[in-house]
Amino acid sequence: MATVDDVRRQFRNPPPEGRPMMRWWWFGPSIERDELDRELRAMAAAGLGGVEVSFVYPMGPVTTRFGSPEFLELVGHAARTARSLGLRFDVTLGSGWSYGGPHIGPELAARQLHWDRREIGAAAYDVPVVAAWPGDEFVAAFVGDGSAPSSYVEVPVRDGIIHVPAGGQPREVLIATSRVTGQNVKRAAVGAEGLTLDHYSAAAAEEHIRRVAEPLLLAAGAERLGSVFCDSLEVYGGDWTPAIFDEFAKRRGYELRSRLYELLVDTGDSKQLRIDFGRTLSELYEDNFLKVFQHWASGHGVPFRIQSYGEPPATMSSYRFADNFEGEGWGWTRIPETRWASSAANTYGRSVVSAEVWTWVHSPSFRATPLDLQGEAHEHFLSGVNQLIGHGWPYSPSNGPGLGWIFYAAGALDDRNPWWPTATDLFASLHRLSWLLQQGTPVRPIKIYIPASDAYADPVGPEPGNLYRVVRRLIPESVPRTIREAGLDYDLIDDDAITVVDPADVPLIVVPDGTTLPLETQHWLEAVRTSGGTVVTDVDALADQLPSAPITPQQDVGVVHRRLDDGDFYFVANTGPEPRELTFDEPMERWSAEITAANVITLHPYESAVLVPTTSSTPTASPAQLAEPVPGPWTVAFDNESRPITLPHRWEDDPELATYSGTATYRTELELPDTTDRLLLDFGPGELVPPDSEPYLPPNSYRAMLTPPVGVAAEVWLNDTHCGSFWAPPYQVDLTDAARPGINALRIDVHNTAANALSVYQHLIDAADEVTARFGRRFDLQHIEHATDYLNSGLLAVPKIVRSSKRTG
């Protein structure tokens, strides 16, 4: 904890903690020392805090195999270089995802329970046990009377023969087989191909540690590692492990084998068995994967960081067996994976919670603008995150053709972007907010109960084994939206978390009517009521049950409330493309480049603010006395060749510039007879993006719905003095300190995205075809054919000089 004065003093220049990091994709492996060094230096220069190395598929000729001595030596070299530059260095414990590879045979691979279901007549049958696929293992067989039996009995198996006795009527036979899912590691590097491991088997985890994780950790050096990392769980269909019968009986107190068929057939009494089966899988994942990796990593003094959601069915509380909790996904009024992680972090006492951010930002690669990055980052902050891990930075040879290499599904967020000169300011602003949101403790007065029992019992839906996604489907979307739009915040809570959450500390919890509740949870909820808390079961009446919020809610504005030793602060963010206004009875300090106090706070589109209650007197705003267009004439220079132009100037309107990615310098002269006023260069608000402008974008691909007046970022000089850079509303720069009476030289450097150039480079498609022909299909370049959709580059508005009657500050 800290005081308001402590935090205020450090806010503008915070310590390094909280700097954004980048996932650093190493393709191939095809890497060279000099390029590793160059990219690390570029990251450090931009103000990034470190890297998370991820080893993925090839994009060109492979120079070394994954896991080879040469490869591991380069891992160590990169770790040493990062340390020398003051960068954190994290490493993913494997290639691609999920964990696995050539060291995982059928005995350690992810498995799925497979059913053969067929009708037979009344005669006896002897059916040989046949392994249809390598690694198949017979589990059990059952027979039931009739064409749609409500119950079954297990049939004997001797000498490899299933002996189905004679019956008096047509029957149905069920044969259960444990089958290797066949899922191979996705996006694997060369030398890392193979089956995904069984996340319910400690032997499988230990083998992966011995063959992959330990060599990587030792190569990097434990003393140089910030953490070791496991990506999201994507072991599709992995719902079985050879030890399940013994484990189920030990954990649940009754036998599974004789009732196994109830996982497939609903007998009317099978719900509790399905709940118990799902719970057993969750516990096996915790005991035999999470605990094994965390114990191994802690033995080396390195934190184990994980995105613990997906398949196998990780609960929210499963996170407690790791060291660092991470989520992904944006959507502050929904329940993204970030909320799964941040709720666990708050419940189990982790002050820092990270997120994989910008995963599908404004697809395809190089389309993302700094405004997109800022807007999506704010969404993560609003979901409880306070450490950003960008997705990401593709390693790319400097001497490669065209734009070089990109990851198939993400923004290419590196120094090949023309807007990179503004990246330092962007990352500095995100660093300040990340650090700030690590101070104090979150105030989240509402709990939403996770209906895990109903999720375990639900065999339908597109991903029945993905507990997080089934839960998100079972909780009405109106619940989180109603809470957040009321200006309040919430944590998810599950059946394990109630053991560490005092019911007296829960003023309100939402448990939709009809939710299946274990007996211990029922008792805990009764204790909430006894302590004066409210249990809301009618979600339609939720809004009427909520307490009032400290900040009056406004459309599109999310609020994060954190408590310090001697006060509170609020992070507020406008998540929409139109300005919003917050009004307060008492003044609020607003922390930014300046610290001001006011009763009315304007939030421009996609703008955030830090607000602190204060007793300071409210200053009188200085009204703008004059706003006049900069008359010109204007010139523009591409590659030092200057020519006159008329504003607005959109590059895509000129066929010769339509595919240009880079920087253009605009110049004019300003005559300023009086410079005693405060002078702002204002480019205007921008324009709303039509909602159907990029219909190909999937729902998880974030983009800001605003066309800026400068596409897409700019730096401003007056009389050769750098006055500032901008990429987001308000599109203004203060010229006051650089202005002088008389003629002033104005220069504006405008940077666009690399998407224009991406549209004319065939080399990426050729590279994908070449590596697919040689190594098999490991990726598809996402949406690359849409590189030029709705591009707007250049100086798209006539700027104005706005004068205030006096300087403020």
Automatic annotation (TrEMBL):
<dbReference type="InterPro" id="IPR053161">
    <property type="entry name" value="Ulvan_degrading_GH"/>
</dbReference>
<dbReference type="Pfam" id="PF17132">
    <property type="entry name" value="Glyco_hydro_106"/>
</dbReference>
<protein>
    <submittedName>
        <fullName>Alpha-L-rhamnosidase-like protein</fullName>
    </submittedName>
</protein>
<dbReference type="InterPro" id="IPR008979">
    <property type="entry name" value="Galactose-bd-like_sf"/>
</dbReference>
